[in-house]
Amino acid sequence: MPMLAGLFVLTCALGGVFTLTAGVAGRRFGILDHPDTERKFHAQVTPRTGGLAIFVTFCIGLLIVALAPEWFGVSRGLGRMTFAMCLSAGALCAIGAWDDRNGMGARTKFTWQVIAIAPFVLWGRPAESVALFGLQIESALVTIPVVLLWLVACCNFINLLDGLDGLAGTLGLIVCLTAGALAGWQNQPETLVISVALGGALVGFLMHNWPPARIFMGDCGSLPLGFLVGALSLQASAKKAAGLTLVVPAVLLAVPLVDTAMAILRRKLNGRKIGHGDRGHIHHCLRDRGLSPSQTLLVVAGLSLFAAVGAAVATLVHSDLVAVVIGAVLVTALIGGRVFGFQETMLLARHFEAVWSLIRGFPRTLRARLVALRMESGTAAGEMRLWDKIVRRAKRMDVLELEFCFEPGTEGRLPIRLHWESDSPGHPESLLWQTSGTLLRTTNSRATFRLRGSSPTGEMLAANAELTELLVALCRYWAEAPDTAVSRGTITADRECELVGPHRPTADVVRFTWAASNDPGPEQPVPRREAA
Q1: 351-358 — which CB contacts under 8 Å span 24+ positions?
Q2: Model confidence over 316-337: pLDDT tens digits?
């Protein structure tokens, strides 16, 4: 134990010295982070080469252990796991340094991350079996890709979260201390000395990275750090009889995992690329609440420490369920307290609601399409029966008004207008919606329709889709000379559906477009949602 303490102090001192040197090198070679007005609010240009200092210090610490393994309780010396870990971490450090200096696309970076981590997974620590909630997976075809993807994900967890002074280093330090404690309890001396060496290097770096930071970690630090903490969490929580487990490491890294998951969810549902940065991370949310950088760092560190304690308890009692409960409590507190993740959760719920509404209305839309297909050989009487069917369905769907107009292309023919209006004015607080469209036909004739209704929530996907399908069919197959009463009227052709109610001026606008062509078959309306 005294030698481990000495190793920790030595790596702390070396980490502080090498971080100063890395800062000078970063300025010398132009590897700098420039402030902007969107996500980077540091006051001055700052070098981002701190990761080089962390990696060099970490390797020196392990080299000292390798020269005298008995002093540190590693009787068998450092094995190929440690060598492969250093090899993969060094490759990731080089990839990150290149990205810091020259930039790299997201797909290219992901590919190189997989290549860099592969030696550790295939040679250094082969995943012979993985346990998940008591389920034992012993097929290498499954375990190796799972562990590889986990380690690549950990690289990106830390990389995405490295947006606040001291944050990535502090979370890495918490994981190292937890992994070291678990390794000592489970008699894993090799994992213990790795945790001590990396923890000391992080403390030395944090001396210069604590808010306000004088140097940043950069991708050359966040990528290898993410890999190392992911590998240590796997190794420290491994069960002797069951092999590696994924539940406890996931809880140990719950804070960066949840932050990354919410970032991916937020960007995908908003139509942005996953690699496109934003100000929606957990530290941004806390800063927007008025917390200072130091207060934000302490809050996130406290959350991570809570998750680490839960992961340690789950390992000690050999129960994945305990880890899941701790993780669920943490996520529920963040979302339920509207600290982080609430907006993403509500956005996902609205998407599920829209999908369910479409699924629920599919049978009616299918029936409408089948009716429309039967109109191809319809007569005037059949067309009037379709109009009666549309009116009957409109009465059951809170539709307020229907109108159909046909202008024949034959000279001397008068326009035809069919109109129906509900006796009920609708609820006074309901949101009104309206759909209208025009179809130009080959005989120079033109058919138009207008559909107006109300809804307390503004939700009209099912009613609009079904009735629009039938009205488009009526426009497409209306005969040139039906034997019906005629009257001349004004035709409006906006070809879109929009909310027109005055009660919710900030509500979303739901637009429906449909293809007005002469193909033999009505087109399905395609909904899309736009901001009002």
Answers
A1: 351/269, 354/461, 354/529, 357/459, 357/461, 357/462, 358/461, 358/462, 358/465, 358/527
A2: 888 888 999 999 999 999 999 8
